## 1
Amino acid sequence: MPVSDFEMINAWEQVLKLSKLEPGQSVTILTSSATHPQTLSSALIATQSMGAIVNRLDLPPVNAEKALSRDSLAWLGTTPLTGNNAAIAALKESDLVLDLMTLLFSPEQHDILRSGTKILLAVEPPEVLVRMIPNEADRKRVLAACELIKGAKEMRAVSDAGTDIRFELGDFPAIGEYGYVDEPGRWDHWPSGFALTWPNERSANGHLVIDRGDILLPQKRYAVEPVHITIENGYATSIEGGLDADLLREYMATFNDPEAYAFSHIGWGLQPRANWTTLGLYDREATIGMDARAFEGNFLFSFGPNNEAGGDRTTTCHIDIPLRNCTVLLDDTEVVRKGKVLDGK
Ligand code: FE
């Protein structure tokens, strides 16, 4: 259903309060050609009504000649901020950046965060934002899952469909995304609700099965038949199956980069207001698929860079794949059993 301006302004005010926005603080709203007009107009009103000093910085899009789709995660590494020192300076001088453009996976984002600026990404359509307004319970749940990851040396995922894979942990931090930025230098994404980390380099080994109904991103497609992926020493070494396997393998091959096949983040979904079914209800260009990444009890794995976590691998390809019905174990203790999170929530 469409969202009223009143509801969107209200939603922003809730998120900004959780993000501890104070009167007199400086907020820069970062926009580009795909920014949703209602998200922008309501953010402008909410920030001003809370007494912030509000700027808008609009930057032209980049990478159209390289990316195969309009999805903002379809080509990583360079952003409209690359080499743009004037824009970077403005963002560093801001207390809070509302990223309605998508800076994710860029060295410039790290640079800005190190200055203490908070960054909140919000690029899903208004109805998705309003359905998944974050709250304190989301934060507590996600941070509890992060504590479990921090204490573990191994993550394993298994499923009746045939997934059985192990990852060594410990070299990279546990990261929780709960949808707001309540500390200086924090980055988050509204909407979200999941805990993740990155496996130690070259430690992933096993077999992954993307089963019928699991989701491929940025393809934004439900798999219609199983895809079998062999993982050896941190890299996917074969992708076999029917049409879905062909599409995934050929898409990844277009990047012509061996690092595209390396493991990126791994974790599980914790957001009860995210829904596995919504991907089929939206136009592909209307969403980046946060419902799919965050729905409760998924096992979310990915291929691509680990520089977000402090690693040194950069690659322009990034694939996120949430699997249903998996059991996720940390050091042989189940945290998700057949798609159900075992935290009593
Ligand atoms: Fe990802």
## 2
Amino acid sequence: MTQATDITPKLAEFEARIGRGEKIEPGDWMPDDYRKQLIRMISQHAHSEIVGMLPEGNYITRAPSLRRKMVLIAKVQDEGGHGQYLYHAAETLGISRDEMEQALLAGKAKYSSIFNYPTLNWADIGMIGWLVDGAAIKNQTMLAHCSYGPYSRAMVRICAEETFHQRQGKEMIVKYAQGTPNQRQMAQDALNRWWWPVLMMFGPHDSDSPNSEVLRRWGVKTQSNDTVRQLFLDEVVPELMAIGLQIPDPQLHFDAENKHWKHGPIDWAHFWQVVKGNGPMNKERLAARNQAHDNGAWVRDAVTAYASRK
Ligand code: 3HC
């Protein structure tokens, strides 16, 4: 990483622009590290959106009502669109769509750990909407202020749609929590399964986040992993408690002095196992993504043939 001592005039001007809150656009000068970090982060974000379609997509045929089916179809379709915005934002930095796609299909690219858990029943679909998309909104609202123009603008559009995703999930879980004992238990079981993986979504603690320093310096991340996690906790803990759900963290407590909810220790060994590909559903998700790619080969061939017609 470039040290302050050998700062070049170009880097000095770049950092002055960041300091003035200017957006860096695709044709602007930018340090190689800035470009590399953005390609890393945006491509992983795009992969997360596309892989994130899988856990919910296989419930579209099992929705409990036509309304729920239509809402879930709309949500899954939105996630696919988010992936397209983000792949395009990454392409503005010089990486090709094919290169990103091949890295994902080969299991070489990261995507969010949260999508490597099973969806066991319909209450999971509600919990994903409320908590996973709720966590994504906190992180993406932060990124909407990111210094790279195409990424920050994509976030504005994505956050608007994520709000609908979160609302529909919350509506579902509130109904379950106010329903029959069996429905309440399904909601509680879903919370027990998703609570800790959702806290891990925000990434390792700031002290263990090697990318954060340069991302904060250059205005890509405007808040730290722990700060965004804290925003999420302070929002959802009272809401989950208000509908009578028990949060599966015996050490969770309210710090009255700082007015924040404090969680117990996160199992980072488990997190890194999932990130390294050894989570409950990593292999299935990658196989499903490869299957979808193979099934779509005829569409790509048809488009290529049409585009090259005389
Ligand atoms: N899952 C997988 N890998 C993760 C991770 C997670 N939840 N959190 C961190 N990591 C990885 C990082 O990619 C990095 O590895 P790398 O250097 O090989 O890429 C390593 O762990 C160290 O973590 P850092 O904190 O240093 O990494 P970042 O500074 O990139 O911070 C992040 C992690 C906060 C997730 C950041 O990458 C980010 O904000 N990404 C953009 C948002 C995003 O990707 N969200 C994923 C969810 S998208 C979604 O939920 C869709 C919605 O529709 C539901």
